Amino acid sequence: MKGMIATLLSRWTTYLPLISAVLLALTWGRDIPGVIVAVVTAALIGVVLAAVYHAEIVAHRVGEPFGSLILAVAVTVIEVALIVTMMLSGGEKAATLARDTVFAAVMITCNGIVGLVLLVAALRRRVAVFNAEGTGAALATVATLATLSMVLPTFTTSKPGPEFSPAQLGFAAVASLALYALFVMVQTVRHPDDFLPVEDAGVVDDTDEPDDHGRPTGKAALVSLGLMMLALVCVVGLAKVVSPALESGIASVGLPQSAVGVVIAMLVLLPETIAAVKSARRSRVQIGLNLALGSAMASIGLTIPVIALATIWLTGPLVLGLGATQMVLLAVTVVVGALTVVPGRATLLQSGVHLSIFAAFLFLAASP
User: Fold this and answer.
1) β partners of residue 346
2) Mean of per-residue pLDDT scores for the chain
3) Any stretches that span the bilayer, and where are they (predicted)?
4) Which of 71, 176, 243, 249 maximizes the CB count within 10 A of its CB?
């Protein structure tokens, strides 16, 4: 009996996505009481951890930089599905949901996750070492995508307000998708070495979590890929289930509607945050930065085209242009990110600067 219990506990990453899928099917589209909300929230946290576990197995099988790319794209595709679903049911109230969620994803990844990765690495090794070429290329792509998709709508004049005209939205969608596809090609085909961890003579991996437990078999990787996708679907689905309680809770404490997008982005990006921090603990700073900037890039490069296509049947307005405060935060993020990336090495100071910007973003999101 004890052996059976031990086996079940050791395979929780296999069973929990399946249990969460059943829970999602039972609660989807229903008004659930507070006790069930608590159960769903607990399942949500557990399935996030399961998603990270299976993503690491897949990444170990396919190698880098493909591993971090798979997790970033998988999470973003499901994030896009969640945004479209909530926009369809939200009416005019959801006009800024896509903008708020994508901007929150950029701030979380480029400041929150990057700051945590540098913090963990600097605390363990004094200096975080990474590849400036690959990281700089990723940051430049994120900055361009964010400007084309979320800054320009504030200044265009073809349509009143911070909105694109249909032609402008189409151009932004095509440009975003093309630029993201170009980056993926460079990352995986032309210059993959620019996105691999940097070997540094002064850095020794003394963690008690060994990075190599033997390469998984193809069958094990396929099973983990399927379970990872199921887990990510459950993450977004369960987040949607608890979103009514989330929205009412946000409204009851007097927070603005834009805070909903921030919470959604934080929930969806939790698997990547955990995976990035674990990579930093293993002296694989570059992998953590790949996850962070790759997620920001995918969030814009995949969301904008899908939202542009969804406007065919969406009846409400689509506000993509950032406000003045958001543009200031974006500009500071790009400048500070560039200064962090150029040396290829970072200390506690750089991590503190990024985390300070992230804290400012959270504070201003709650108190604009």
Assistant:
1) 128
2) 82
3) 12-29, 35-54, 66-90, 102-123, 135-155, 167-186, 220-239, 259-277, 289-313, 319-341, 348-366
4) 71
